[in-house]
Amino acid sequence: MAEDDIKRSVRLSLLEGGKGEEQFADEIADILTFVGEVQEIAVSEDVSDVKQNVFRDDTVTVSEGTYREPFLSQAPSRFKNWLVSKKIL
Amino acid sequence: MKYEEADVQQMRRALEDGDVTAKDLLRQARDVIERTNGTLNACVALYESADRDADRADDLLKSGNGSPLTGIPIAVKDNICIEGQPVTAASKILEGFRSPYSATVIEKLQQQGAVLVCRANMDEFAMGSSTEHSVYGTTYNPHDTERVAGGSSGGSAALVASGAVPLALGSDTGGSIRQPASFCGVVGLKPTYGSLSRHGLIALGSSLDVIGPIARTAADAELLFAAARGEDTCYDSTVDSFARGSCKEGGVVIGVPDNLDEIGIAKETMAAFEETLDRMKQRGHTVAKVSLAGIEKAGSIYYIIQPAEASSNLARFDGIRYGLSVPGDDLWEGYRKTRSEGFGDEVSRRIVIGTYVLSAGYRDAYYNRAVAARNQLRNIFADALTSVDVIAMPTTPDVAFKEGAMQNPVTMYAEDRLTLQANLTGMPAISVPMHCSGLPRGIQYLANYGCESVLFACAKDTESQIS
Lengths: 89, 467
Description:
heterodimer, A: mainly alpha, 2 strands, about 45% helix, B: alpha/beta, eleven-stranded mixed β-sheet, 15 helices, about 40% helix
C-alpha cells in the first residue's frame, strides 16, 4: 500500500479527522509504513498457515536433549488440575 | 562488606555468619534509594510489606531454613502484582489500583524468604525503550544522569546499577530486560518463553512477555532464575521440562550473524564486540559465522504482533474494573474519556496500530503476514542453532542515549532491532557488560529453548574478562 493511502486510511478510519491529531496520524502512518516492510519478506508456503503458532511443534530438538512443548499435550490436564486446586471441581 | 558493591553470595555469607540481618539489608537498600532516587527516579514506591518480608527472612535464617535468596533485597517492576500492594504499570489508568493476588513468581520468592523492597519505574505498560513513557517521569542512567536508563525495565536496571538492590525482577517483551541492563552495565536475562509463570504479570504481548532477572552478576541472575522458574497450575504455558544444555569441554561454539554490519551498529560497539569475542576464543570457545537472513526485518514483524496483542490485552482497562474511572453521559463516553485520560501517547499509538492491523481488510496484509514471517524467523534461528551453541550479537546498537533524543517513534523502535528476535522466537537470551571504556555496552548471547545454563556459562566467562 502506498504511503499516501496509508495516511489517508489512518485518518479516515481511525481518527475521523479530529482536530489536533494531525501529528498523531503522521506518526502512526510512519509506523505503518515501517511495519509494512513485512510484506517484503519472502514467506515460504510451509509457514504461511497462521493457525500454527510459534510453538506449533510438539518437540523441538536441541543439541543436548529435547524441549517438550506442553501447550497442546498437557493443557487439558493442567486446566483440570487448576480447577481442582481452586476447589471448582 | 560494602552493601552497594556486594553480590548475593557475599550478602548470604554475611547473613549466615550473623554479621547482618535481613532487616539491616533492607535498611541499607532504603538508604541507597533515599540517597539516589531524587536523581535517578528509579523507584516508584517502597513496599509496605517489606518489613514483614524481612522479619520472616530473619526467622527463616534463625531456624536454619534459609534458601539462597533468603533475606536478599529485590526490586520488582511495577507491572508484577503483589497482593494488597499498588501496581500501576506506570500508567495513570491504574491509579489507585491494588492487586487482589500475587504473581506466581512473587509467591515463590516470598516462600524462599526474599525481601521485596520497592516497585521499580518502567515505560507505561512496558511500551518503550527508555522509561521516558512513564506517568512517574523518566528514569536516569546511574552512569550518566543526562541519559536514559533504557526500557522498559529501566527502573529495575537503574536500581541494580546504583547499588540499591543486588537483584530486580523485570519483564521482557522485545528487549525490555536486556536493553536497560546493557545501558546500565548490569546483567539481564530474558528466559525461554514459559519458563517463568506470567500469572500476575500485567500483560502486554501475551505470546512475547517473559518475566526475568536483572542482577549485578550472571551468578546472581542464575540464582533468581532458579528460584522463580517452574511449572504453574495458574498458567498453562509454563514449561517444566528443560533440555539442560551445558558448556562442553573445549568451550561452546559461538555463532555470529554474517550480516551484522548491515544492521547499523556503532563502530565503538562493534569494536568492543569483536574484542570480547577474541577474548572468548582465548578462553577456549570457538567463533563461527552463521547465516541469519532476514533478522533485520524482525522490527516489522514485532511492531505488528506486539501492538495487535497489546490492543487486545488493554481492552480490559475500561474505567469500570480497574483504577481510573472518568464518568461520561453513557457507557461508551465513559470508556472513551477514561482511556483518553488514562493512557499515554505511546500506549494510544500502539492500541491504534494494533486495532488497525487486526481490522478487516488489513489483517491479511499485516497481521497474518507477520505471524507467518515470525514462524519463518523461528525456523531460521532453530536451523542456525543446529551448527552453533549460542548466537552472539551486541545487545544494543550504541550506548544509552540522552533524554528526549528519540522523538520519532520509529527511531525509538529501531533501538530494539537486536533484541526482538529472542521474543519472536521464544528463545532465551542474556545481556552481559562487555569490556570497554566509557559508557556500558552489552553483548547478548541467545541459545536454544531451555538452554539457559549455556547462557550463564558464556556470561560468566565474559564477566571474567572485565574483572
